[in-house]
Amino acid sequence: MNLKQLSLPELEEALAPFSPSPTAVRKVFAAVFAHGKGSVEEVANSPQVPRRVADHLKAHGEMPSLQIVERRRADDGFVKYLFDSPLGGRVEAVRIPIFDEKYVVCVSSQVGCALACDFCMTGKLGFKRNLQTWEILDQVLQVRAEADRPVRGVVFMGMGEPLLNYKETVRAAGILSNPAGFSIAGTAITFSTAGHVPAIRRYTREGLPYRLAFSVTSAIAEKRAQVLPIEKTHPLPELIEAIREYSQVRRERAMIAYVAIRGFNLEREDAEALKTAFEGIPIKVDLIDVTDPTGKYQPPTAEELSAFRDYLQILKAPVARRYSGGKEIGAACGTLAATQYGGTVMPSPSQTS
User: Fold this and answer.
1) Is 46 helix (H, G, I), strand (E, B) or coil?
2) How far is CA 142 from CA 65, 80, 100, in A?
3) Of 109, 288, 274, whose CA–CA distance to 199 is shortest?
4) CATH number where 72 lies
5) Residue 95: beta bridge partners?
6) Which of 73, 124, 333, 347 is the most buried (most CB within 10 A)?
7) Which residues pair with 134 in a beta bridge?
């Protein structure tokens, strides 16, 4: 019984033969996630855990962990964790500083990615496998254990397309937002999707409390297909309708992620295409400078980006420029590829104590 894999209802079901009180089950759950206990014995010995439950946990419970290969810090304060999984493959998580108050953790959901977005280094790895729930959560557990500020948000924007690993990522988000788990607000958990329409519609039907960010990058189908091959599987009109449904059900603006690429998608015609595509849909636009270590795609010049923001005024929608940090260590959006370069390699806390 992998204690890091189970939601609270699943843990209740697993322990039901021992007739524990609801409080006892929550104590076990909280020991694993809220308190980050490092072993089954520590969990089993938590206060108010009945002896029969403790004995069962010690006999049948397990708490596997990812191995930290290294921690690498960029000058802007972003820290990238590289993990080895006992199930195979390496994944990365990024600790993102929010002012001097808190951290958000960017987590991976797959080893590699099948979507092969042309500017994304993860996509060049190809798809290896989906991560299990515990592997996703252990990224947050280990980052949080070493953090000097609270972790108040999680974004599924690391390696992989989270909606192609729907069951595991949604279970992970449920544990992250559970008051007895990580106690992170649902609105502070975001899934980024390149546009897997069936999963978006399922997400909308199920009324999940987390946010979606939709990677569009161009509302001109030919351009979008050039950089996001998923356009050929789920064309833009299909994606737009799914976004419309999402926005209507949520009664909020849909977050449109727009990767800004020099000389490619920043002309007046690109702004006009966005206006036409999203007519009648309340949106907000996040502009993200492309980061492509291969050099094929370049970030916009200041003049180009300024002009495009002027063009975007026709949307009558909020437009923000999202900072993509940690470029020098391969921690920026689109650069996660289990690499080791740049910045400063940080020692483990045990080495500094």
Assistant:
1) coil
2) 9, 12, 20
3) 109
4) 3.20.20.70
5) 79, 105
6) 333
7) none
Identify whether 351 is part of a domain: no
Catalytic residue among 106, 117, 120, 333: 333
Active site residue 10: no
Q: Assess whether 245 and 213 both reside in one domain.
A: yes
* Residues 41 and 81 grouped into a single domain: no
Note the pTM of the prediction, 2 decimals.
0.96
Q: Using the structure block, give the residue that is written with the tokens 């094929």.
A: 296
Q: Are 255 and 214 in contact (CB under 8 A)?
A: yes
User: Are 264 and 289 within one domain?
Assistant: yes
Judge if 120 and 171 occupy the same domain.
Answer: yes
**Residue 24 is part of which domain span?**
8-60
Catalytic residue among 92, 161, 168, 231: 92
Q: How do the pLDDT tens digits run along the chain, 353 residues long?
A: 999 999 999 999 999 999 999 999 999 999 999 999 999 999 999 999 999 999 999 999 999 999 999 999 999 999 999 999 999 999 999 999 999 899 999 999 999 999 999 999 999 999 999 999 999 999 999 999 999 999 999 999 999 999 999 999 999 999 999 999 999 999 999 999 999 999 999 999 999 999 999 999 999 999 999 999 999 999 999 999 999 999 999 999 999 999 999 999 999 999 999 999 999 999 999 999 999 999 999 999 999 999 999 999 999 999 999 998 999 999 999 999 999 999 999 998 876 65
Q: Say how many domains are in the chain.
A: 2
Q: How far apart are CA 130 and CA 151, in angstroms?
A: 24
Instruction: Please name the residue ranges forming H helices in 178-298.
Output: 197-206, 221-227, 236-250, 268-277
3-class DSSP state of 4 = coil
In the sheet with 67-73, reading across from the earlier edge strand, the strands are: 319-322, 283-289, 254-260, 211-215, 189-193, 151-156, 102-106, 90-98, 79-84, 67-73, 344-346
Residues 28 and 72 occupy one common structural domain: no
Domain end, chosen from 25, 45, 60, is at 60
